[in-house]
Amino acid sequence: MTTPAMNRRARTWRRFVAGLCAFTLSLQIGCYTYQPLQTSVPATGDRIAVVLNDRGRFALGDRLGASVDRVEGLLVGGDSASVSLMVYGTTDLRGSSSTWTGERVQVPKDAITGYQGRQFSKRRTYILVGSMVGAVLASVLMTNLNVFGGLTHADPGGGTTGESR
Fold first, then answer.
1. Whole-model pTM?
2. How confident is the model at residue 151 (pLDDT cuts 50, 70, 90)?
3. How many CB atoms lie within 10 A of CB 115?
4. For 89, which DSSP code?
5. Which of 14, 45, 82, 136 has the most beta carbons within 10 angstroms of its beta carbon?
6. Residue ranges of domains in the chain
7. DSSP-derived secondary structure letter, 63
8. What is the DSSP string of 125-145?
């Protein structure tokens, strides 16, 4: 038999777990950062981001979308006129990002402001691991200590009291 208090406890627990999962998923993206590269063109096979200028946003707007600022992907080739990327994501001028599945795009070199290299971020990874450990500990403690429980359990004696004897 479920009581309203048990349903409320289950709803609260589900919301807590859902919020924790959403927070953890948002941090998974944060294990890597993009830092400016000092080289003119990175090596083929590197995961990079290409920062576009106004000319590039206009020229690639029909393929990448309007107002794209940065294109992230795997550098698969390049020549004197352009670079070829397998695109995994784009970021527009407002900061909104879109996920791609590796479509190949040619980016003209005169459309590029600069290159950014993908680097592992220890600090963000520690935050991710810490939040995951916290989620596991919180779920174990809340389950074992019945944190969201109250005094709403039915009388285990079947409802009779000592006075009726």
1. 0.59
2. very low
3. 20
4. E
5. 82
6. 32-120
7. H
8. HHHHHHHHHHHHHHHHHHHHH
Instruction: Give Cβ neighbours of residue 109 (< 8 Å, ≥ 6 apart).
Output: 80, 81, 82, 83
Enter the tokens of residue 110: 């005169």
Quick one: which of 126, 11, 160, 75 has its CA closest to 2? 11
Question: Is the pLDDT at 158 greater than 60, yes or no?
Answer: no
What is the rounded end-to-end Cα distance, in angstroms, of the chain? 28
Span 32-120 CATH architecture: Roll (2.30)
Strands (E), the chain: 32-36, 47-52, 68-78, 82-92, 97-108, 112-120
Count how many residues are written for the chain.
165
Q: What is the pLDDT of residues 107-131, one digit of tens each?
A: 999 999 999 988 877 887 788 778 7
Structure tokens at 15: 């919301």
Nearest in space to 60 (alpha carbons), one of 108, 98, 124: 108
SS3 107: strand
State the DSSP code for 49: E
Cα distances (angstroms) measured from residue 87 to each of 41, 49, 74: 17, 9, 7
Average pLDDT over residues 30-55: 84
